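TASK: fixed-backbone design
INPUT:
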């Protein structure tokens, strides 16, 4: 038990660390918001095991509402953020590649000068030629007449040679000197020139700042989306769970069912889970729903309570009002073994519901059998399929009440015609149903286990968070038909 509790604490801690990284560290800069988020993450991580332990032991039932609601919200935050990891990774990679690649078609900045010692490439215009080229306006140099003029030939040649020598040696004229000085000043003081040397380019610091802002924007968007989605799913789930069970009807043929019993109605209810978040009204509306279908047989398939008779006996009192033509029957679920199963077996019988304790009885041409839950094995009160199903007339159809669907594997050798079960809650909070499928062969509705038809009802209540998503609470009316 200590090892299991320790494992829960470690898992909860890791989940909250992940939530802190995605909801606090990534979207916020260092400061008060991040510190407040860190404190909240620690307190919420403590709240989860405190709720599970406190409610189970009865020492802190006041934690049930805030604690269980946070468990649901935590679950959906984890699911949504995990789903967002792939698009988040793709977006980050795209942003990094965009920042690392210069813009296509970028040209060197005006005023950029070649590195020291570099010589212009062939065909490259010199500063002077750029100034004195044809069509240049605003030049301080006089235009040079290159036509032959005997009177000025020597002068023209001398000026041209002087300019070429000045260009070769790196000397510049007044205007060029001014331009070079301005260019050097720009290079010294302009952040653009220190990184790319391209018109419109960003500096490394500007690129870094822009990248940080983009990552913050991405992280904040993901956090907001996850928060809104998780809150919406949790709110919807609370409304569904507390809104009362729906009535579902299903017809199931039994090959050996006598024609006289064609149309026999079984009202199947499980996982009522009377506890700290429910009350007497929860039991009252379930009883009203069962009585509205005029059932022949009522099957209460375990997990009736989450507490002792002393704590919850008054909540169960309305069950005495269940009406049916041929009686109401009960088998234990795993939660009865957490809550004083022997006292509850006695209490249920006092309310007029007959417990089937690894036994069967004949109900108008039908064998109705019930086995204790597998959870009872730990206290020496487990299922006994031989006692419940052995030595019977194989020509008669038999319906087995067993809390867990997986019990059908042990029931299959006895030729069971139909097993009715609960336990799974239909997954209660999708996509948790995918994990339930790993443990139970049928999660909700009608299926087959080793050749045995098994009907699994979602249950009328909830366990833990008062939240149901994708698995509404239900009471099922099974109509047995002759093929």
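OUTPUT:
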């Amino acid at each position: 038990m200590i090892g299991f509790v320790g494992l829960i604490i470690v898992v909860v801690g890791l989940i909250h660390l992940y939530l802190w990284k995605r909801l606090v560290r990534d979207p916020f800069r260092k400061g008060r918001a991040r510190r407040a988020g860190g404190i909240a993450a620690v307190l919420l991580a403590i709240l989860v095991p405190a709720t599970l332990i406190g409610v189970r032991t009865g020492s802190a039932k006041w934690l049930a509402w805030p604690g269980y609601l946070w468990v649901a919200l935590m679950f959906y935050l984890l699911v949504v953020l995990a789903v967002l990891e792939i698009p988040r990774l793709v977006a980050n990679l795209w942003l990094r590649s965009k920042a690392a690649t210069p813009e296509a078609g970028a040209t060197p900045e005006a005023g950029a000068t070649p590195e020291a010692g570099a010589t212009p490439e062939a065909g490259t215009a010199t500063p002077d030629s750029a100034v004195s080229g044809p069509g240049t306006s605003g030049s301080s140099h006089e235009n040079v007449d290159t036509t032959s003029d005997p009177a000025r030939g020597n002068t023209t040649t001398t000026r041209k040679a002087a300019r070429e020598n000045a260009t070769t040696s790196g000397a510049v004229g007044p205007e060029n000197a001014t331009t070079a000085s301005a260019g050097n000043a720009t290079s010294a003081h302009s952040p653009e020139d220190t990184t790319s040397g391209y018109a419109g380019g960003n500096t490394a610091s500007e690129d870094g700042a822009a990248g940080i802002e983009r990552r913050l924007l991405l992280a904040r968007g993901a956090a907001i989306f996850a928060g809104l989605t998780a809150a919406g799913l949790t709110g919807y789930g609370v409304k569904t769970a507390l809104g009362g069970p729906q009535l579902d009807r299903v017809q199931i043929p039994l090959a050996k069912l006598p024609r006289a019993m064609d149309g026999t109605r079984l009202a199947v209810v499980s996982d009522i889970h009377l506890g700290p978040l429910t009350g007497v009204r929860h039991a009252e509306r379930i009883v009203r729903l069962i009585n509205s279908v005029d059932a022949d047989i009522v099957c209460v398939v375990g997990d009736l309570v989450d507490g002792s008779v002393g704590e919850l006996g008054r909540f169960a009192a309305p069950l005495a009002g269940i009406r049916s033509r041929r009686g109401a029957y009960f088998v234990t679920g795993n939660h009865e073994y957490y809550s004083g199963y022997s006292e509850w077996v006695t209490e249920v019988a006092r309310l007029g519901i007959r417990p089937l304790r690894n036994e069967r009885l004949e109900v108008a041409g039908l064998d109705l059998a019930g086995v204790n839950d597998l959870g009872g094995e730990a206290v020496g009160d487990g299922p006994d399929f031989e006692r419940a199903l052995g030595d019977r007339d194989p020509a008669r159809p038999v319906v087995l009440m067993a809390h867990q669907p997986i019990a059908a594997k042990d029931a299959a050798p006895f030729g069971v015609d139909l097993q009715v079960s609960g336990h799974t809650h239909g997954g209660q909070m999708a996509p948790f149903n995918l994990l339930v499928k790993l443990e139970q062969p049928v999660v909700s509705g009608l299926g087959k286990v080793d050749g045995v038809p098994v009907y699994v009802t979602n249950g009328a209540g909830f366990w833990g968070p008062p939240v149901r998503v994708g698995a509404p609470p239900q009471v099922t009316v099974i109509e047995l038909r002759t093929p």
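COMMENT: The chain has two domains: 2-99+207-235, 245-481.
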